[in-house]
Structures are given as C-alpha cells and as structure tokens.
Amino acid sequence: MMNQGRGSASVNKLSLWLALLCVLIQIGTNDAAVFMVGDGVGWSFSADSWSEAKSFRSGDELVFNYNPDIHNVVAVDASGYKNCQVPAGSRVYNSGNDYIPLDRGMNYFICSIPGHCKGGMKIAITAN
Q: Where, if anywhere, are coiled coils annotated (predicted)?
C-alpha cells in the first residue's frame, strides 16, 4: 500500500510539471506577431524598404498578399537574395496569400519572376 501512495505523488508531480510546461509553451506562442508585407500595398516592387522600421522575432509571421498570376514568393539564402537567384531546394510560395513564419536570424525572400527581384521585390528580415 505504501508504494501506491508514493507512486501517486510522483504521477501528480509529473502531471503538474507537464501542465506548467504546456502553459509556458502557450505563453511563448501567443507573443508571435503577424506582419502584412508591404502593409496596404502588399508584396510589390517597393518591398525592399518595407521592413526598415520594424522589429521582428522568431516565430512572427509574414503575410504576403499578391496576384499569383504575376508574382510569387521564394525563401532563399543570402546568396540568392544578393544575386536574385533561386538556389536549388528553395521553398516557392504561389498562393497569393502566403503565411510564412520567421526563423531566428536572417530570413530572405524574393519574387523569382524575371526582373522582379532586381526591381526591388525582395526583403531581408532579421528575427531575434
């Protein structure tokens, strides 16, 4: 009988710790912000300056609104951003209403339609 009591206390402590962990995880995810890229204009040729006065955190979401018949969004690396090229294996978004969470560090996005990236349809975002 004594062992059952001790086991129950251990289970109750474990349950309490798991519940606390779930609460902490939920608190962390509620802090994420959602940013509309380009604000009212959307994902466009002026996007390269859109992020200048904003602060971003890991887990924040960028929303890219655009006409999918003439634009797309591609998550690229630093070289792809600098050279306006799509590296092999890059993630291409083309729904016209893409929600993309930011990773910690640098995040790079371009439009891969010829001439669009070089025309300013690219952004580099640092997420802390």
A: none
